Amino acid sequence: MKILNISDELREGLAITASMNLRGHKVLYVLPGSHYKIHRVRLQTDTGSVTVKYIEIPVIRYPGSSIISTFLKCRNDLLQQLFATEIIDFDIVVTSSSYTSFYLSQCVSRIHQIPLLIRISDLGIVGKFNEAIKLFHYYNALIELPPGILRLFKYVTSGDIVITHTHAISKFVEHYLNRRNILIYPTYVKMLTENSVQESIDENYVDMTEHSILGIVNVKRPALSGKHDRKALECLYTIAKYNPSVTVTIIGTSYKEACTVLGKYELPPNLKLLGAIRNDLILEHLYKNSSLIVIPFFFRKTISNRLLEALFYGKPALIPSSLKEDFPMLKHEENTYMFDECDEAAVMVRYLLKSSDVLDRLEKEAKLLWEETFSNRIFGLKMNSVLSSLLGYLY
Fold first, then answer.
1. I need a labelling partner for 220 at 20 to 30 A (CA). Which of 110, 293, 296, 361 fits?
2. Model confidence, pTM
């Protein structure tokens, strides 16, 4: 089967590309709006690894240009590059529910008259509306909600098949948009580029204490995402403040950025901020050498790559209880620990790091949860079955 996979969700897009390639299909991945400038990458799942090629389509809106003209340029760039690729005559198009990815995919689907499969891993502002108002006081959500609902309805009703990646999204699509869907929980893939393999692990990343926790936030993200990560940073800061003997390592935010967001001239010495890390070998090292992963993720109806990473590396995790709505298999005090407020998380960290037997049990259960629910073995089998049945049904 020849699959065209268009998605600006980098991890999810690469995960599908790797999974289907490992099952013998020819998959070409198109990444709109990319700044990575990487055209070939080695991808590693929990069941194997494969080298894939993908196309990057810059999405640049010049001053004075309209959204339509920007999209038309992206479309023309994509069609021109597809014509030059060695994979032609695609059997199916797979895409995510974002503006550029969807309309590019719909265009290719109509031109070549091939089926379109829509993946929904995030309901956008529709799924984040309550949190936007209550948690982050983001009142622009009132303006963004109506067009967000219309876009989501168009995405869901335009696909030959709709795949949802969380339980909450699946129920929302069925109940409010009246569209049957197939629920397939996402898997995770590790990227191994030439640069990441050649780059040595810096000593700053190696210095992990016996009791260390890891969190990832990026306070530079715009709009609602930035507000979310600033709250997540405050949560991790609270944990570090009330647990001075614990090293709290944060990826994605620099020391200066954290001081600005928190309004502090200096931060606790046990709070370690590494800034952006795009090397997955370093990321893997940090995960595997941390005692506990803390995931301050407050959005519902969207996946959390931080959760997938923690489970992929088999690490015990402390997560907000809101994630249970998306992933009902998460059980408090069984395969994870859950908190409602950040002050509560600070107390739980102290308890967990003093209880090696509890951490060992959580690690064992996290690995079992991955094998039973998120492994590429399960994900790939389900995706392969859906794609094959779709082609068989249509042809």
1. 293
2. 0.92
**Sign of the CA dihedral running 251, 252, 257, 261:** negative
Question: What domain range is 317 assigned to?
Answer: 198-374
Residues 180 and 213 in one domain: no
Number of domains in the chain: 2
In a domain, 144, yes or no: yes
Tell which residue, 104, 92, 127, has the closest CA to residue 32.
Answer: 104
192 falls within a domain: no
DSSP label at residue 200: P
Are 241 and 369 members of one domain? yes
Concatenated DSSP letters of 316-349: -EEEETTHHHH-TT--BTTTBEEESSHHHHHHHH
* Model confidence pLDDT, tens digit, residues 288-319: 999 999 999 999 899 999 999 999 999 999 99
Map tokens 């006081």 to a residue: 137
Angle at alpha carbon of residue 29, lines to 28 and 32, rounded to 5°: 140
Measured CA distances, 264 to 236, 261, 325 (Å): 14, 8, 35
Look at residue 229 and give its three-state secondary structure.
Answer: helix
For residues 1-22, average pLDDT: 94
Residues 94 and 9 in one domain: yes
Q: At what angle do helices 141-158 and 99-112 cross, to 10 degrees?
A: 20
Q: How far apart are CA 358 and CA 70, in angstroms?
A: 53
Cα distances (angstroms) measured from residue 23 to each of 18, 83, 388: 9, 25, 12
241 and 294 part of one domain:
yes
